[in-house]
């Protein structure tokens, strides 16, 4: 019996989310719709022109959002990450603890530095634009992995954003090796089209022969495979992933269960904020397949959960919302 359903590894960022008009991007020379890595000076200059009092603050990072979702649905999750001994670092530890995620860090173990921050700018069309200063999380390395947690998990979940640094890539590869040597399945998310576009070869190194489960959206799937249509892209993905999920936004999702393709229908919703929808889909899906649900049932749960996420501001469900969604899945 494994102690954890999912152990995630990834960046630790305090998400600071706020609403903006399109003019904000023109005035401040921000490229809309992308995740852009920036230095601390650039991020601080942006923070000076936003209303931080109205901004929502939360412990985030792609994989962190997913392991929180696993916990909210009733699963057991662990997270490997790095934050600094500062106000936001202490906030991060408390927020993950309050979210039911197991962690190996305590305030007295934190090092000096600056905790990473992600400015999440949400426009009226529900598009998210992120400017990220990684801070101390850019030093995430093999030393931040908890080998015993990985070994005692059903799945290792690897965040694609780690691919941007050599030490992050090394940690991804080492964690995957630990998992494979101990019969733990490996899931990987590409995280963002920019990661696939600019780090295609490093991803090949991490994936190796294959992964057990891959999460991608349509754009990422086509960028990675070099195909210009989803039909060809999904056939190519079979070569690197035993199972995979391709999310399709308002059109639902497509799942390959190892034998057949399963179409997951979307749930009607009014989109307000797309931030965290992919993270929620991955977290809910991982909860499902590690807790006795089929791929189709897990996909339905993930679709319901992500549709709820885009209908509200912020990347997380409330605890009662997770229970309501589970109740709908199992009436």
Automatic annotation (TrEMBL):
Organism of this sequence: Algoriphagus boritolerans DSM 17298 = JCM 18970
Name of this protein: Sugar or nucleoside kinase, ribokinase family
CDD domains registered for this protein in UniProt: adenosine_kinase (cd01168)
Keywords annotated in UniProt: Kinase, Transferase
Record PROSITE patterns: PFKB_KINASES_2 (PS00584)
Phylogenetic placement of the source organism: Bacteria, Pseudomonadati, Bacteroidota, Cytophagia, Cytophagales
Gene Ontology molecular function, alphabetical: kinase activity
InterPro entries: Carb_kinase_PfkB-like, Carboh/pur_kinase_PfkB_CS, PfkB_dom, Ribo/fructo_kinase, Ribokinase-like
Source species, domain of life: Bacteria
Alphabetical list of Gene3D superfamilies matching this protein: 3.30.1110.10, 3.40.1190.20
UniProt family annotation: Belongs to the carbohydrate kinase PfkB family.
A Pfam family it matches: PfkB
Carbohydrate kinase PfkB domain sequence ranges: 49-318
């Amino acid at each position: 019996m494994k102690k954890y359903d999912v152990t995630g590894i990834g960046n630790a960022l305090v998400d600071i989310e706020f609403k903006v008009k399109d003019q904000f991007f023109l005035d401040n020379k921000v490229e809309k719709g992308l995740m852009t890595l920036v230095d601390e000076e650039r991020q601080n200059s942006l923070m000076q022109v936003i209303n931080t009092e109205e901004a929502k603050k939360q412990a985030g990072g792609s994989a962190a959002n997913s392991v929180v979702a696993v916990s909210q649905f009733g699963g057991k999750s662990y997270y490997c990450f790095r934050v600094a001994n500062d106000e936001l670092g202490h906030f991060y530890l408390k927020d993950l603890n309050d979210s039911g995620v197991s962690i190996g860090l305590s305030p007295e173990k934190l090092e000096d530095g600056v905790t990473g921050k992600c400015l999440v700018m949400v426009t009226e069309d529900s598009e998210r634009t992120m400017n990220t200063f990684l801070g101390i999380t850019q030093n995430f390395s093999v030393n931040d992995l908890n080998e015993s947690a990985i070994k005692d998990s059903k799945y290792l979940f690897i965040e694609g954003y780690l691919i941007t640094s050599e030490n992050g890539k090394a940690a991804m590869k080492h964690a995957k090796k630990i998992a494979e040597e101990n019969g733990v399945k490996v899931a990987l998310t590409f995280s963002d089209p920019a990661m696939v576009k600019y780090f295609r070869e490093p991803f090949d190194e991490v994936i190796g022969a294959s992964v057990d489960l891959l999460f991608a959206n349509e754009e990422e799937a086509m960028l990675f495979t070099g195909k210009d249509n989803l039909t060809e892209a999904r056939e190519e993905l079979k070569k690197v992933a035993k199972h995979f999920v391709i999310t399709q936004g308002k059109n639902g999702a497509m799942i390959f269960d190892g034998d057949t393709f399963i179409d997951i229908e979307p749930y009607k919703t009014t989109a307000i904020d797309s931030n965290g929808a992919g993270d929620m889909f991955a977290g809910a899906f991982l909860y499902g397949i590690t807790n006795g649900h089929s791929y189709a049932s897990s996909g339905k749960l993930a679709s319901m959960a992500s549709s709820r996420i885009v209908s509200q501001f912020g990347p997380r469900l409330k605890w009662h919302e997770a229970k309501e969604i589970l109740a709908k899945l199992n009436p």
